[in-house]
Amino acid sequence: MSDPATSPSSSLPALIIGGGPAGCACALWLHKLGVNTLLIEASDRLGGLQRLSPYENLWIPGVQGRTGEAVAAALHAHIVAGGVPHRLNTAVTRVETADGFTVITKDQSFRACHLVLATGTRPAAGPFRPSPNVAIGPGHPMEALRVEGQRIAILGGGDNAFDQARFVLQRGAAKVTIFSRSRLRAQPLLQQMIPQADIRIGPYAADQDRLSVNGEPFDAFGVMYGFEAHVPHGLSVCNAKGYVEVDRHGETATPGLWACGDVTDYWHPCVTTSAAHGIQVAKQISLRLQ
Asked: Is the overall model pTM greater than 0.85, yes or no?
């Protein structure tokens, strides 16, 4: 796809980093509002974290029976069909904020008057590293684990921990033990779905090399430590919780620098709220440019 105004000497009115639900919604609305814009995405497909979910997403109104992967594919197809200028496989290495915004990638730099961070979150790994026996985060990493007849330790006490424990049991795990350092954060409904799970609350020491927790051996770990905001280098816009601080319009303390979706921790994170936040930011940028 041809891109608008991408030479070093030209400047786009708006540029969006991140092609998840928030970034796609923002780019689509800006494009339809007549704003010359460009969406850049580090991976080879749009859709954000939904690309990693093989599970039916029951929380999005009107998409019954569709997995997260299907939702991501629909987002990608909509951007392509709508003619929204975008670039894939374009990872941002740094952002400079002098005299507007310069977004630097491996192969090229882009300048923009308004910059939108829709970079979302990524699973928090803590001290662990992905391996054939250690999955970091829900979705495809967990589905790749061999669990049938195995002893699985789920580290974390939130919704994803209990969801993944349930899926692992359905796939034939011999035993699932959930370790949470403090009180359980998962919804009671999710906890009630797996009464057979062994739940341990309190301090624990998990050793990846020995695949043991408090000395007890396991066959695999599922690390469900939640998510952390993914912010490009060169920006100091995060609050004490590690998320981008924005006002009610989605703008940071730096004029012209916006953020939307999960990277902001602004609303309860999900596909629908992220898309709505992206639309809100697009409208505000359009009004500002007028």
From this structure: yes
Can you say whether residue 209 is alpha, beta or left, with left for phi > 0 and alpha for psi between -120 and 50 degrees?
alpha
Alpha carbons 235 and 97: distance in angstroms, whole number: 8
> According to the model, what pLDDT value does residue 187 have?
93
Contact 277, 22 (CB under 8 A): yes
Q: Shortest CA distance to 85 belongs to which of 10, 29, 1?
A: 1
The pLDDT confidence band at residue 9, using thresholds 50, 70 and 90, is very low
Model confidence pLDDT, tens digit, residues 131-176: 999 999 999 999 999 999 999 999 999 999 999 999 999 999 999 9
Q: What distance in Å separates the CA atoms of residue 229 and residue 265, rounded to the nearest whole number? A: 8
pLDDT at 5: 44
Using CA atoms, how far residue 35 sits from 21, 24, 278, 284, in Å, is 19, 14, 14, 12
Query: What is the H or E stretch that residue 18 is in?
Result: none
End-to-end CA distance of the chain: 27
Q: State phi, psi for 105 to the nearest 5 degrees.
A: -115, 180
Rounded Cα distance, 123 and 49, in Å: 10
Residue ranges per structural domain of the chain: 12-123+227-289, 134-223
* Residue-level pLDDT at 6: 47
Q: Under CATH, to which class is 134-223 assigned?
A: alpha beta
CATH code matching the domain that covers 12-123+227-289, chosen among 3.50.50.60, 3.40.250.10, 3.40.50.970, 3.40.50.20: 3.50.50.60
